[in-house]
Amino acid sequence: MARSPSGESVLERVVRILEAFTPEAQVLGVGEVARRADLPVATASRMVADLVEHGLLTRESTGRVRMGTRLWELASRASPTLSMRELAMPVLEELLRAVGHHAQLGLLDGEEVLFAERLSAEGAVVNYTRIAARLPLHASSSGLVLLAHAPGDLQERILTGKLARFTSETITDGAELRRRLADIRREGFVLCAGHLHLEATGIAVPVRDETGHVVAAVSVIVPNDDRARGHVPLLTAGAREIQRRLRRAVGEADDIGLIE
Amino acid sequence: MARSPSGESVLERVVRILEAFTPEAQVLGVGEVARRADLPVATASRMVADLVEHGLLTRESTGRVRMGTRLWELASRASPTLSMRELAMPVLEELLRAVGHHAQLGLLDGEEVLFAERLSAEGAVVNYTRIAARLPLHASSSGLVLLAHAPGDLQERILTGKLARFTSETITDGAELRRRLADIRREGFVLCAGHLHLEATGIAVPVRDETGHVVAAVSVIVPNDDRARGHVPLLTAGAREIQRRLRRAVGEADDIGLIE
């Protein structure tokens, strides 16, 4: 791929420009894009114009730019993240109705959990999760479930690395984390009371594909009180239903050649 | 931006490669990517490798590639499409519960309606809508609502262009379409019985921003029978609730500087 005089590919710069846009900074001036992407303003300006021309960014009447609908469409319509989310959706809706706070679907991506969906009721308890945003593996219920079933090398990196503290309840000790991961594999769920915010409890269970491999975590966030544990059976049943739908979808995809 | 010997920018080629992936073709070999993107196999192969390196595509163990989670994340986390969808979500869930088939949110994009969300009940009536997929403006209930409130030049292009037929009920006559658009502006909703599929009725109403500008269509798809019309008041109330949430969000975004 074509490289700039600095030896950097065009694609690298495109990715850096797209990375400049976040949930907190959805609309940016070109100067701000340049600063965040660490590019000269003239370069950023030229590349932004090109991205706008292709619909990947949209220019507002003020001259500032934001993520383009075309990019969302291209990234979403063939996305495995969205496919998994569509499969899980009826179950998440059922869970939301039952618990009345938050129901969500998390996927392991790199060394974090990435949320493919979050459904929330009005007036629900505090929740840091956002769709297409990430949380650390050791601190969130979804993350702990995914970490408990992750490859050994990833587990070791997290267990021996720095475990950031969010509240007095966050697990920040490697030995304790190792024990909790073993508990999760044995018990089939995790309940995190106040790990990310003292007022909230996260409960998560694994979702497995037809080979038994854990492919997602389904979770609910509820108030941190004595009733939280009562949601575990519902969540376990929900995960089983997602697994049933996943197996059916894999069968159908086989039929039309989507999966080899 | 850097151009190939053919004068085409790298970005043009990246877009063509991303466009190769569709809901029906989520996993592709490099040869198939090259064919769909109309690129030499060597070029496609090099660009796919670069896209995989940046996480925008993912290579499976078979060597075939699919849309990358990273691209979905970047495109989604700062997307106005997703923001609008999150605002509308509680209302769509309420509508889904009430009608028991499909509830959806459509946005005008170019000369088509692009669906930001589709929620469906188990065993619901047939529905061609998919998330991040498109339908023609003249043939879908959401499309008709958006077209009724679209700029005049877009209306004229559609009214004087070819109006594709899907069923015996599709509006394919320009003069009839013009009358229907006036009806929609007067009545505030559209009911399309069998326009896309004879078994289904689409009902759509406009969603307006704080200036009165129509920014979306909210719709339900139900069986084509006498009960369909009874859902109109519910849908109208749903649109009002989305408008209320939209105004509140604009106020909050003003406060943190998201919107000028």
Please, what is the CATH homologous superfamily of the largest domain in chain A?
GAF domain
Radius of gyration of chain A: 21 Å
Report on the biggest sheet of chain A: 6 strands, antiparallel
Percent in helix of chain A: 40-55%
Protein name (chains A, B): IclR family transcriptional regulator
Organism (chains A, B): Actinomycetospora endophytica
Keywords (chains A, B): DNA-binding, Transcription, Transcription regulation
InterPro entries (chains A, B): GAF-like_dom_sf, HTH_MetabolicPath_Reg, Tscrpt_reg_IclR_C, Tscrpt_reg_IclR_N, WH-like_DNA-bd_sf, WH_DNA-bd_sf
Describe the structure.
- The structure is a homodimer of 260-residue chains.
- The first copy, chain A, is α+β, with helices and mostly antiparallel strands and 260 residues long.
- In chain A, strand 7 and strand 8 form a beta hairpin.
- Chain A folds into two domains: 65 residues, Winged helix-like DNA-binding domain superfamily/Winged helix DNA-binding domain (Arc Repressor Mutant, subunit A, Orthogonal Bundle); 179 residues, Beta-Lactamase (2-Layer Sandwich).
- The first copy, chain A, has a six-stranded antiparallel β-sheet, sandwiched between helices. A three-stranded antiparallel β-sheet of chain A has the order 1-3-2.
- Helix content of chain A is 45%, strand content 20%.
- The first copy, chain A, is globular and about 55 Å long.
- The C terminus of chain A is likely disordered.
- The two termini of chain A are 29 Å apart.
- Chain A contains nine helices and nine strands.
- At the A-B interface, helix 1, helix 3, helix 4, helix 5 and strand 5 of A face helix 1, helix 3, helix 4, helix 5 and strand 5 of B.
